[in-house]
């Protein structure tokens, strides 16, 4: 094991990215802040030995997020395979509360990350397999003490396997959801904006993402994905055909909000929310191949990977493809960016470093590092390090020259890390336990 610290200067892109009250800095959503770029500007150390670890919590497809308790202490929140939202004390890992969100209509599960709203509560999607195999999802709001505020079944027999984004925008609390709805022509993907009105949820807009109906094969693929994602933890090998569905990301754009989204059927693109309705900024057609979630970078590029190994950078406002990188194997993990302009990409068995502006290989050090995998987890980046939970807990410097490996840890291959305010790193192990590694 080699252990040292490396440094990187923060260039202040986060405040430029957020630009309004859409989010406070933190790790409140899947893969970080609203842009989903997997970066937190904190000093951090190498994940060598855990500060604490919980008993197994039956976490499967969900990833942890970080919030604050009413007294200001840090807390960690994660969903379970049996549809519980669990709150953990960041100091010692003790369970603070558990919100049981199961439906009586069938087996329910939380297969994506929750989202911490600006009021300290949580938006979380619970999906239930009904008798006959149909999937139905409900968006829940849970307050910061674990009490239920409201439950909103997705419209038109809809379901979603991706993570929501809760935020305050244009003087309203809203939640962004990407899901599938049933039409006469078959399943259609849709981007939804739901208003959090306190004790109820109101659908403000629903925009179909494309004109590509999906038939029974797509519905069966979604059911299989849900079943794999909702299996209790303890998975030794990631199923070869497991492809989690992408979650949306967002960034303020003056008086509007840009939302990057990719569906499982045929569309990727950016939509704009002006406080009243969604409109299409640009969209492109894909062939139904699985994609990672999109990350919006400081340069206003939308970066995402694909199952054929290609990674793309598109201009968020014009839809012009700026670059393409070939990782050589499937990329289902969301890319993460450093403040120094390096994009970290996880393919099935490698960690790559490429220039975020051009897609070219990075300026220093090895640019392709084999990992002890495979994994579908996404990396987390701080001012010092890159973290990736695979079959070990891997920490590397930005140049890959310094590394540490905690072989006592083995990840579940699905859950991505979260970074706390002091640089602590929270990860999910193969048995569903949450581990904390102390910060700098």
Oligomer: single chain
Look at the structure and give the CATH class.
Answer: Mainly Beta
Radius of gyration: 19 Å
Mean pLDDT: 89
What is the name of the CATH architecture? Answer: 7 Propeller
Number of domains: 1
CATH topology: Methylamine Dehydrogenase, Chain H
How widely separated are the two ends?
18 Å
Helical fraction: under 10%
Model regions low in confidence, pLDDT < 50 over at least 5 residues: 1-24
Largest beta-sheet details: 5 strands, antiparallel
Number of strands: 33
Could you explain how this protein is built, in words?
- It is a single chain.
- The protein is globular.
- It has two helices and 33 strands.
- Strand 28 and strand 29 form a beta hairpin.
- The protein has a single domain, classed as 7 Propeller (Methylamine Dehydrogenase, Chain H).
- It starts with 12 loop residues before the first helix and ends with a strand.
- Helix content is 5%, strand content 40%.
- It has helices spanning 13-18, 216-229, and strands spanning 52-53, 65-68, 74-79, 84-89, 95-100, 107-109, 115-116, 122-129, 135-142, 148-153, 165-169, 172-183, 186-196, 201-208, 249-253, 256-262, 267-273, 278-285, 295-296, 301-305, 310-315, 321-326, 336-337, 342-346, 350-355, 368-370, 380-381, 385-389, 393-397, 403-406, 418-419, 425-428, 434-437.
- Strands 6, 7, 8, 9 and 10 form a five-stranded antiparallel beta sheet that branches. It has a four-stranded antiparallel beta sheet with strand order 1-33-32-31, with no helix packed on it.
- The chain has 440 residues and is mostly beta strands.
- Mean pLDDT is 89; it is low at 1-24.
């Amino acid at each position: 094991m080699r252990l040292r610290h490396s440094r990187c200067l923060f260039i202040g892109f986060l405040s430029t990215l957020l630009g309004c009250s859409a989010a406070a800095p933190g790790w409140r959503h899947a893969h970080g802040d609203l842009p989903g770029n997997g970066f937190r500007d904190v000093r951090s150390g190498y994940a060598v030995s855990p500060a604490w670890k919980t008993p197994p919590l039956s976490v499967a497809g969900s990833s942890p997020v970080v919030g604050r308790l009413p007294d200001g202490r840090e807390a960690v929140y994660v969903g379970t395979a049996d549809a519980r939202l669990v709150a953990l004390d960041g100091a010692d890992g003790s369970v603070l509360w558990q919100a049981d969100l199961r439906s009586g209509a069938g087996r329910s599960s939380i297969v994506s990350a929750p989202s911490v709203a600006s009021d300290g509560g949580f938006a979380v999607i619970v999906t239930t397999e009904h008798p006959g195999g149909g999937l139905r999802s409900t968006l829940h709001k849970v307050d910061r003490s674990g009490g239920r505020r409201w439950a909103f079944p997705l419209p038109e027999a809809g379901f979603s396997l991706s993570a929501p984004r809760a935020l305050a925008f244009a003087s309203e609390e809203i939640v962004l959801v990407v899901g599938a709805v049933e039409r006469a022509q078959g399943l259609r993907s849709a981007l939804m904006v739901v208003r959090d009105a306190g004790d109820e949820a109101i659908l403000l807009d629903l925009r179909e993402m494309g004109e590509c109906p999906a038939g029974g094969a797509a519905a069966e693929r979604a059911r299989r994905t849900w079943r794999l994602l909702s299996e209790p933890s303890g998975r030794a090998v990631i199923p070869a055909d497991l492809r989690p569905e992408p979650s949306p990301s967002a960034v303020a754009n003056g008086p509007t909000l840009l939302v990057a989204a990719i569906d499982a059927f045929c569309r990727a693109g950016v939509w704009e929310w002006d406080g009243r309705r969604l409109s299409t900024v640009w969209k492109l057609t894909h062939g139904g191949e699985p994609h990672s979630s999109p990350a919006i970078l400081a340069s206003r590029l939308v970066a995402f990977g694909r199952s054929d190994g290609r990674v793309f950078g598109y201009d968020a406002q014009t839809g012009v493809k700026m670059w393409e990188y070939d990782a050589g194997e499937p990329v289902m993990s969301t890319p993460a960016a450093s403040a120094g302009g390096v994009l970290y990409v996880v393919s099935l068995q490698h960690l790559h470093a490429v220039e975020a502006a051009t897609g070219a290989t990075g300026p220093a050090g090895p640019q392709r590092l084999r990992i002890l995998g495979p994994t579908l987890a996404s990396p987390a980046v701080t001012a010092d390090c890159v973290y990736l939970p695979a079959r070990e807990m891997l920490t590397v410097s930005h140049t890959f020259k310094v590394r540490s490996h905690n072989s006592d840890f083995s990840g579940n291959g699905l859950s991505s890390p979260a970074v706390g305010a002091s640089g602590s790193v929270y990860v999910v192990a193969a048995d569903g336990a949450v581990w904390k590694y102390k910060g700098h």
